[in-house]
Design goal:
By secondary structure, the protein is mainly beta. The protein contains 3 helices and 14 strands. It is globular and about 45 Å long.
Length: about 300
């Protein structure tokens, strides 16, 4: 289907439901970049670590959590818009935040210093961190943010599809990470422009083996990156999405929430993510299962 055909389909679907302006039933699609051609990037490109600048609207559900005390772009963590009023993120993003009223969210932006007319700002009405989250070992590192008011969906703001229990995550091939985090290990500043990088899912048993993470990976974690390192999430990417596309599908699933890792881009130390599929029921309890968007 060509781009025009997709946009017509999305518009008609939204109008038929009468809910295009407040997100409707569509998730996981990227109307701005349906025909976006992902090119191989050489070693000199800007990094996520190892990534490249994302085009406007590339990942329309990604959210920047900001705090005024953070220098530069104020970026704290990432997140994913899963309904018009709920954002999925990592629990550890709030370990040092004493007043959540100071945190605000930017939705629909690619460049933080120039968010553009499509960007929307929201405050946090409610923070729900997993009741068994442990900051020492990053177990159950997942959280939900209820927005001060629902967002309006448009070409730059769309909902993410949350991986449900029927999805066979291990069979997904086209996986990506995105975020405004540091573009090099130990870098002090976050990136102004959203970075994206293609990654591979890494078998959890391998990831947890001797010479890798040696037992530190929980059963509710996923690992993604490359055995040799070089491409990885980094500081500031926490809370953002690990996104995978089915082989014959147009939409992306959020299969993981960026949680932790040893260094950035190290060999045998890939990024560690909280499995959204594992916590699907937990998410549903807090936001209502009927409101979690499905790609079908």
């Amino acid at each position: 289907m060509n781009r025009l055909g997709l946009l017509v389909l999305l518009t008609v679907a939204g109008l038929a439901l009468g809910t295009w302006d407040n997100c409707g039933e569509i998730c996981g699609l990227r109307p701005m970049v349906y025909e976006y051609e992902y090119m191989d990037h050489d070693d000199n490109t800007t990094r996520i670590v190892g990534g490249a600048d994302a085009k406007p609207g590339a990942w329309p559900w990604i959210v920047s959590l900001k705090h005024p005390a953070i220098p530069g772009t104020r970026h704290l963590c990432g997140g994913s818009l899963i309904t018009a009023k709920w954002v999925l993120t990592a629990a550890h993003c709030f370990d040092r935040i004493r007043k959540i009223g100071m945190v605000y969210l930017v939705i629909g932006a690619t460049q933080l210093t120039k968010p553009g007319p499509g960007a929307q700002l929201r405050r946090i009405k409610k923070l729900v961190r997993h009741e068994h989250y442990n900051k020492n070992d990053k177990s159950n590192d997942i959280a939900l943010l209820e927005l001060s008011k629902p967002v309006d969906c448009n070409s730059y703001t769309q909902l993410a599809c949350v991986a449900d229990p029927t999805l066979i995550v291990s069979e997904l091939q086209n996986c990506w990470v995105a975020g405004w985090g540091s573009t090099a290990a130990r870098a002090q500043n976050s990136s102004d422009v959203l970075q994206e990088a293609q990654v591979q899912l890494i078998n959890v048993q391998l990831c947890n083996s001797t010479g890798w993470y040696a037992g530190k990976i929980h059963t509710h974690n996923l690992c993604a990156g490359y055995p040799q390192g070089t491409i990885d999430t980094c500081q500031g990417d926490s809370g953002g999405p690990l996104m995978c596309q089915e082989e014959n599908g147009d939409y992306f699933w959020i299969v993981g929430v960026t949680s932790w890792g040893q260094g950035c881009g190290r060999a045998k130390r890939p990024g560690v993510y909280t499995s959204t599929q594992h916590f699907y029921d937990w998410i549903g309890v807090h936001i209502g299962l009927e409101t979690i968007k499905s790609a079908f």
